[in-house]
Amino acid sequence: MKVLDLADLPHRPIDAHGSRGFAVGAFGISADAHLIAVSLAPGGTIGRHPAAGRQLLLVLSGEAEVAGAEGDVRHLTAGQAAVWEPGEVHETRSPRGMSGMIVEGDLDIGAPGEQVDPGDT
């Protein structure tokens, strides 16, 4: 077994789309999806941009304010996630800072548990 500490991954700052206080660290990739550790400093923003594929943002600590194409802002706390569809313009802000994980690609969000893990039968 290998244990990963997301804080220890090499992160690089991102300033595209007017982003600020935003850094990413990749920790997994497959033919179908990317797994990305993200951090937003207090007051940080991931600027409005279209999702390259289906995208899930899971807040691990802190909080985020997210908006999709319609512009309605939703508040997320640790343990909550937002999902954007391919091409959907979206943005994320964090007044107090957050760390999280983005999973991006060919995802089946909300699949029943037995489809994800059929168990030992």
Description:
Residues 38-95 form the Cupin type-2 domain. This is Cupin domain-containing protein. The protein has 121 residues and is mainly beta. The chain has one domain: Jelly Rolls (Sandwich), CATH 2.60.120. The protein is built from one helix and eight strands. Strands 1, 2, 3, 4, 5, 6, 7 and 8 form an eight-stranded antiparallel beta sheet that branches. A hairpin with a 3-residue loop joins strand 2 (20-29) and strand 3. The radius of gyration is 15 Å and the shape is globular.
Features:
121 residues; mainly beta; Jelly Rolls; 8-stranded antiparallel sheet; 8 strands; 3% helix; globular
Q: Mind sketching the topology for me?
A:
Elements: E1 12-14, E2 20-29, E3 33-50, E4 54-67, E5 73-77, E6 81-84, E7 89-94, E8 98-105, H1 113-116
Pfam families: Cupin_2 (PF07883)
Protein name: Cupin domain-containing protein
Region (Disordered): 87-121
CATH topology: Jelly Rolls
Distance between the terminal alpha carbons, to the nearest Å?
A: 24 Å
The CATH superfamily turns out to be Jelly Rolls
Molecular shape: globular
Name the helicity range: under 10%
Helix and strand content put the structural class at mainly beta
Approximate strand percentage = over 45%
What's the helix-strand series? Answer: EEEEEEEEH
State mean pLDDT (0 to 100 scale): 87
CATH hierarchy: architecture? Sandwich
Number of strands: 8
Number of helices: 1
